[in-house]
Structure formats: structure tokens, C-alpha cells
Amino acid sequence: CDSTFFAGFYAPCTHVQISNHLTLLAESLPPELSQQSSLLITNRGHRNRCPVPGILYNTNTLESFHALDKQSLLRAEATKIWEDICSGKAEEESAVLSRFLLISFADLKKWTFHYWFAFPALALDPPATLIDLKPASQCFTSEEAESLSAVCNDWRNSSLTSDVPFFLITIALNSHATIWPLKDWEACQSDGQKFLFGFYDPCHLPKNPGWPLRNLLALVCSRWKMEKVSFLCYREKHGFADLDLSLVGEVTLSVPQGWEDPKFIPNAVGWELNRGKKVGRCITLAKSMDPTRLAISAADLNLKLMRWRALPSLNLDILSSTKCLLVGAGTLGCQVTRMLMAWGVRKITLIDSGRVAMSNPLRQSLYTFENCLDGGEMKAVAAVKSLKQIFPAVEAEGVVMAIPMPGHPVPSQEEDNVLEDCRRLQNLIAAHDAVFLLTDTRESRWLPTLLCANANKITVTAALGFDSYVVMRHGAGPLGSPVDIKSKREDALSASLDMLSVEDRDTRLRLGCYFCNDVVAPIDSTANRTLDQQCTVTRPGLAPIASALAVELLVGVLHHPHGILAPGENALSSSNESSEQPLGILPHQIRGSLSQFSQMTLLGHSSNSCTACCSTVVSEYRKRGMDFVLQAINHPTYLEDLTGLTELMKSTSSFELDWDNETDDEADI
Q: Which InterPro entries does this chain map to (predicted)?
């Protein structure tokens, strides 16, 4: 149970049928815990915000809320009031005569709030006896009423006294009224004049004074031992004193037994009744709130609890603002999307050219049977609709387009369309912060990999076998951010290309991409395949595992101080830096096998002959643009020739081993 000092506010009643209740505002809580003691001072001077010191006890469970010792809590607050009366503080700072206590429990998942207010009142024993109570307009002459209204308005309009809720009133024989602070009690004692105690009355009832009177009478009884007291319940209309609504009353008092003892503490009452019963209140806001805002709040709550309990450095802002592009909206794409949303990513774009087939809904979680009807909806469109149904606040976009691929030659009449797709993909990658490569074929990952290396984008690849998977993050591009070729002279560009290196700015080897370990260029992997070979056949459990790991890699990169340049780590990394990261190590590759229920982290550096991310390929793309892409698509061996893989394979095939024909016996001699 946590306790916090804060302030409530009230003002005199301003309506004949409505009381002015205690109000809690954003300003009620101190901006800093160290400023709790000065909270009342910083909230002074507002005529409609008379401060009332209070304390909040917030519990973490409903059981703790019910188990609180409410009588002890009430008595503790009443003791503060009594001590302020005995010490004279209540006369100097009359706001402390009214205190309140609030206990609460907030169920933020259901938006249900349990709370109970107490307004401690010192019990007079014997109790005060009300002799008379009537409208103030009936208790004064017209001259007295006019003067009293004028001084009350002046008191309320002064920034020094507008929120001072307790005061003294004297009316001289010449009908002139004066208002005094409580500390001037002795100065305003004079024979022949009317004398009243005044207070701001929030109550509208014509026959009932408001709750601040209770402790005012305790102060009068304790400090000044008066047996008969007249009081003014000050109320207003349209911001001015209203003596028809205000009340004047008279009570008789007897000093209770024991009040002379400095160690004595009076009994107290004050727990608010709920429909006549002494129980707390409960309010449910879920039904009155916008469902979308409820969904956002619930989703954010889970992440905030993660940050509160285990990950104080979790950056929710960077997660919610990161724009993610998913190339492929199939089994992996659906799972990755769900994982991204669970981590708080709100901006997601999906690229796919396929339609939802009857076999898809069982493994691809964003689709249903209805999406398969009438030939099937486009996956990119259906996925976005599903995401909006799951979480209306997601900013999702579906792009229907095919990815141009090496080994899939383009007829001359289709070249313009293919080049347009290439430019569109280039623009999409440039507009996003992170890219996931989640397609079925190896060659469909080549162009996105090249474009990401050129734009230096965070790139994560996930690929599945029958019972194995690989998840990896690509290293930074070889050239960093792309240069504006148009603004550079050719000689300056040539000089920059001569300085290309596979090392990043920290002189560490760049991490490799999906193609860095290949010794052949990507080609058409679907040609001459039977139906069973064309279908992706994997164990159902692979996709959720690989997708979760892919998203965890992205979250790790976003939280790593080096970002995309973060080195590859594993459980045996000697670097102390990895152990200090709140999310743990950040591997380069994760390879797993369901048949062995095993998983390992690997590290692979970039290759000088990579067909997708090496400096030769990226620089050639920057020089030739879409002409280079079109040549790579139409001529399968072009990339191998450009990167030197052709020469490498020739030298390998011509290499002959010189076998040692000596016998074992001879070798042993």
C-alpha cells in the first residue's frame, strides 16, 4: 500500500440545488514527491479552489483494499487536525481544519476503480446543540446586509484571502461589517457589536450547514471555550455573496471532558456513507470509454508493466514509432505482425501479391474461411482488415505487388511494369525503419536485401525448412547512407567508391546478409518442381518460433546503443557490454531444429563476393540504378560475373589434389 500527500479543492456553494463537492484535479498531485509539503502553498490564490490537504492510500490488490484498518487511518488524520488546533497552526493556516482521506484500488485491466473517502471530524461530547438556523438575509438589517455582502465580495476577490475558507465577522453599531482572519480573534472582541464565525459552505441544503463547520466548532470549543457561537454559512450566486442562500446559525457548546489534557485525542467520525451503508464505492469506466481507446490503454498497460517490473529501460516510444515493412504476408508474415503489435509497434506495411487459399487459414493467423471465398482475397488487403479488427489503433497498410526476382526473366513488354515495381519497393523501403524478409523463395529476398543494404535499413530474415529454421539480422550496408549522386561530381563519386570496405565505422567486420554464405547467385527455385515441391511444407510449430525470434531481434537492435552496427553475440561472448543490455545478448543468426529441439547462435561476417550486399553490387546499383536490377533479373550469371564468383568456381574446379600414394607402413617409418 502506497501513500501520497495531495490536495483536494472546493468552493462555496453557487447554486440553490447543487452542492459544491470536493474536487480532485491533475494539480492535486505534487509534480515531485519532494514537493508534497509545499503543495498547499503552490495552489493558493484561486477563488474556486480552496485547498484541502489530503492523503491517498493506493493498494495493489482488491484484497488489500478491503483489509485496510480504516478506523486507524481515520484516527491518524483526525490526530493531525487536533494537533494543528492545539498548536495554533489552524488559526494561522485555516485550511488545515478540513482534511480528507482517500483509499483506492484501480483495476486497470477492467477499468474498475474502488475508492472510499473520509472527511475526519472531531466528535464533540456532548455534541453541539443547534438553536437557530435561517437565511442570512433574515438576520441583518438592510444596511448590515449591504455592508456584509460588500466585505465578503472583497474578501473573495483578493488573491490573498479568496481561498481562505475560515474567517471572523464583526458588525459594528454603525452597521459596518469587517472580516478578520482567525488569528485576529482577540483583536475583534468588543462589546456591543455582532460577532460571527464564517466559513465557505459547499452545501446547498437550506436547513443543513456544510461539513467544514464541524472542525471549526471543535477549534472554537478548544481554543476559546465559548459556550454560544453564531456562524455564517457563506454561499454565493454568480460569483457574488448571496445572503438569501447563505445561512446564519447559532449553537451552544460544552467543553468535552478530557479536552484540557494536552495528550488527549478526541474521537473522530467521517467515513462517507454509500446509500446509507458504511462501505466503499466502485465505478466502472469501461462502458463509457471509446472501445479503441480502451484497446490502446490495455495494450500499453502490458508493456508498461513489463517496464515497471523488469525492464526500466524499455523504450516504448521508439517501439510505437518504428515503421516496419513486411515483405510477405504468409505464415511468417502473419505471425511476425502479431508479435510486432504485442511489442507495441503500431506502424506496419505488408507486401504480398498472392490470394488467400483454402489451405491458408489454419496456419496463417490473419485469415479466415471467408477470406478464401470467390477465388480468395488479396493477402495484403485481407491482412490489413484483420489487423484492424484485432487492434483498431494499428496503422496498417497493404500493398499488392510482386517482387522482381533474379532468374525470372522479364519479357520486353513487361519491363516497364517490373521497373515500376522495383521503384515502388525502393520507395517503400526508404519510408520504413525496419524490413522483414518473410517470403517463400530465396530469390524473392534478393532485391529487398540489396535495397536495404543500399539504404542502410535494419533488416531481419526468417526462413523455414521442414523441421529447421534460420532467423538472422543483416549487417549495415557497405556504404552507409546512400549519397546523392546528382550532387556529386563523377571524380568525387569514383573516389568514394575506391574507399569501399566490408568494415563498419568501428573497424569491426560487417555482419553478413542472407546471401553472404552463398557461392552462387539466386536463380528460379520453383521451375520444374512438382506440386508437393512447390508447396511450403514445414512443421506447424516452426513459424511461431521463428517469427517470435525475428521480432525479438528487431527489439534488441532498437534498444542496443549501436543499433544496426551492434556486433553479433552469443552466450559465450566475452564482451561485458552484452551482459549489461537489459534484453540480453543480440545474436547475428539463430538456427534451430525441431527434430532435435535445439537452437544455436552463429556469427557470419559479410562477404566481398556477396551477390546482394557487397560493396561491388551496391556501388553498381547506385551507378546504374534500375538498369542494373533489370540485368540481374534477366541474366542469371551476371551477378556471379560481377562479384567474382564465376572466377572463384573456375579456379575451384581446376584445382587438383596431389594425392600421397605412399603406404601407411612407409608413412610410419
A: Atg7, Atg7_N, Atg7_N_1, Atg7_N_2, ThiF/MoeB/HesA, ThiF_NAD_FAD-bd, Ubiquitin-activating_enz
Say yes or no: 225 and 350 in one domain.
Answer: no
Residue with C-alpha cell 539504404?
455
pLDDT at residue 247, rounded to an integer: 95
- The size of the chain, in residues, is 669
Pick the closest to residue 613 from 435, 492, 488 (CA basis): 435
Dihedrals phi, psi of 666, to nearest 5 degrees = -70, -35
pLDDT digits (tens, 9 = 90+) for 519-542: 777 877 666 555 555 556 889 999
Place of cell 487459414: 361
The percentage of the chain sitting over the pLDDT mark of 90, rounded to a whole number, equals 60
By DSSP bridging, strand 194-200 and strand 228-234 are parallel
Which region holds residue 480: left if phi is over 0, alpha if psi is between -120 and 50, else beta?
left
| Catalytic position from the list 13, 203, 535, 613 | 535
Distance separating alpha carbons of residues 208 and 323, to the nearest angstrom? 62
Nearest to 119 by CA among 279, 233, 273, 234: 273
Distance CA 447, CA 426 (A): 9
Helices 542-559 and 331-342, packing angle to 10 deg:
40
Indicate if 17 and 56 belong to the same structural domain: yes
Task: Show the domain range for 259.
Answer: 129-265
Cα–Cα distance for residue pair 203/20, rounded to 1 Å: 6
Same domain, yes or no: 62 and 156 = no
Beta carbons within 10 angstroms of residue 159's beta carbon? 10
* Ranges of H-type helices in 560-593: 576-579
Judgement on whether residues 387 and 413 belong to the same structural domain of the protein: yes
Q: What is the mean pLDDT of residues 413-429?
A: 93
What is the model's pLDDT at position 577? 54
Global model pTM greater than 0.70: no
Residue 206 lies in a domain: yes
Percent of the chain that is helix, strand, coil (3-state, to 5) = 35, 20, 40
- DSSP three-state, residue 487: helix
Distance (Å, rounded) from C-alpha 307 to C-alpha 312?
5
Rounded distance between C-alpha atoms, residue 262 and residue 242, angstroms: 40
Banded pLDDT at 467 (limits 50, 70, 90): very high
Q: Is 535 a catalytic residue?
A: yes
Number of domains within the chain:
3
Name the residue among 174, 172, 183, 185 with its Cα closest to residue 229.
Answer: 185
Selection from 80, 122, 73 nearest residue 221 by Cα: 122
Q: State whether 535 and 601 are in the same domain.
A: yes
Grid cell 492535486 is found at 28
Do 52 and 172 belong together in one domain? Answer: no
CA distance 508 to 505: 7
DSSP 319-346: HHH-EEEEE--SHHHHHHHHHHHHTT--
